[in-house]
Amino acid sequence: MIHPRPSTMAGMLSSLIMISAFGISAMAQTQPAPAPGPGGAAAAPAEPSQADIEARQKALVDKIETFGWTRAGQVPLGSMAQVSIPKGWRFTGPQGTRDLLKMFDNVPGTSELGMLTTEGLGPWVIFEFEETGYVKDDEKDKLDADALLTNFKEGQEAANVERKKMGIGTLTVAGWAVPPRFNDQTKNLEWALRIVNEDGGESINYNTRLLGRSGVMEVELVCEPEEMATLLPQYQSIMTAFQYTSGNSYAEYRAGDKVAEYGLTALIAGGGAVAAAKMGLFAKLGGLLAKMGKGVIVLVVAVLAGIKSLFSKLFGSKESV
After folding, report:
1. Is the dihedral of CA 150, 151, 152, 156 positive or negative?
2. Do 3 and 276 touch, CB atoms closer than 8 A?
């Protein structure tokens, strides 16, 4: 059964507050039951007052605070890497990240290693690691932005079929905010997509792939378009402070190490995630952001049938180095 996402502020707030797994559903009871209308039918519930909105937002923020946060120093990203926490930011580990994703109608996987965010309902920087092997950079000068964008759009159309089945609103890939580019000095791959939800709310999904010896650290900044210019210097500073632990950097590759069966083009298209029959894009629900700030995101899940044919041309067997 399809359950479309609510389009009104009251409906969105009600949906968030009724997430009983996080113990805050009682906040939805702050309004008295509506009086019967004509014919005995219950009247439409009143729009929440500003006080109700503020109380519900506080309950949400208070619950997020229980996920466990570190606010200074360096923190591990599994055993593969570490990252420094910038001033004004905070970090939660794998379980806190998954709890936060689930809180906002996401379907977390098993590869999340942590998340950086600011206080309250700030922008998110999410870290995941795909242990797919050493990815060659021999396609760095052959990235076809137009072809990749077409595949993203077609893949999203396939993903929307599943989203509807899950009762999650559809998303549209509107275009590049930043086309794919490879930094040969840092061995980082970057691109950013403009994502629009069915209510017209737009967000930026800014992706960085940090190549390592045995796989790829996948990093995603989720923010609003108007935030990107301000956040990018902070985000790039976070990327600069990122370090693979000894033995795990790209430069430490040795003959005989596992080599990934795809290159940079497929890594943009989804890499190991596409091979495993899913593609992840994050987007914020714009209608809620107008009064509640940031942090509401949904995960795009695509099935193998919808993606295999679209991305098959991007994959190919990769010989050993």
Report:
1. positive
2. no
> Whole-angstrom Cα distance, residue 214 to residue 223?
29
User: Among 3.40.190.290, 3.30.413.10, 3.40.50.1580, 3.40.1000.10, what is the CATH number of 69-314?
Assistant: 3.40.1000.10
Could you give the CA distance from residue 18 to residue 94 in angstroms, rounded to a whole number? 24
**pLDDT tens per residue, range 119-144:** 887 889 999 999 989 999 999 999 99
For residue 190, is it left (φ>0), alpha (ψ between -120 and 50) or beta?
Answer: beta
Look up residue 191 and give its DSSP letter: E
Residue 42: half-sphere exposure toward Cβ, Cα within 13 Å: 6
Find the helix or strand (DSSP H, E) in which 175 lies: strand 171-183
Could you tell me what percentage of the chain is helix, strand and coil, using 3-state DSSP and rounding each to the nearest 5? 35, 25, 40
Q: What is the mean pLDDT of residues 208-231?
A: 92
